[in-house]
Design a protein that fits this description.
Elements: H1 3-21, H2 24-35, H3 41-65, H4 70-76, H5 79-90, H6 92-98, H7 108-115, H8 120-144, H9 146-152, H10 162-187
Length: 188
């Protein structure tokens, strides 16, 4: 099996998981892989939107169900949580739509919204629309700027199994950045 076939089979799953766990880096990588012809652009955008939507729905449900649990209480102690609730109270629909685009508020916001009085149905629909826009935007950016990224890599065209190493390194790098961001938010 070639690396192109491996990425074709598992690439969209990686974009889905990466969008939910890490965020923009993996979605931009999905757009880059679509630019290189290894994924379909619509497939990458749908996987990104779905991964983001599912993760945010899970965080919302956790905030709603476990608002008195120590895990949610720990999140409530963070300054970002207070900012999220304050903004949510002033602009509920706009905040639900925009939180995924705001650095530092992406993970804590759906938990904060879950602890609020926002109806589940309201969050679900606004979250779905925002996830579709976010997935299309960031996948599109990776696709459009794919040529520039490829040129930055110095016209490196790996052959055979080398693609496996390049793709693996990109995925690991994305997860490493996500873990560092999570660790900083957890301690801050």
């Amino acid at each position: 099996m070639t690396i192109e076939a491996l990425i074709g089979d598992y690439g969209l799953a990686a974009v889905f998981l990466g969008a939910g766990i890490e965020g923009e880096t993996m979605v931009l990588a999905g757009g880059l892989f679509a630019h290189e012809g290894m994924l379909s652009l619509p497939g990458a955008a749908i996987a990104a939107a779905a991964g983001s939507f599912v993760a945010d729905q899970c965080f919302f449900a956790a905030g709603r169900r476990f608002r008195d649990h120590r895990w949610v209480r720990r999140a409530q102690a963070k300054p970002a949580f207070a900012r999220a609730l304050d903004t949510l109270e002033r602009y509920p629909v706009g905040f639900i739509f925009a939180f995924r685009f705001l650095y530092g508020l992406r993970t804590v916001s759906p938990i904060a919204i879950g602890t609020s009085h926002v109806p589940t149905r309201t969050f679900l629909w606004i979250n779905a629309v925002a996830a579709m826009l976010w997935g299309a935007l960031f996948t599109g950016l990776g696709y459009v700027f794919g040529t520039g990224i490829a040129e930055l890599l110095g016209r490196y065209r790996p052959h055979g199994r080398q693609w496996l190493w390049v793709a693996g390194a990109a995925v690991l790098l994305g997860f490493a950045f996500g873990a560092i961001r999570w660790w900083r938010r957890r301690d801050g």
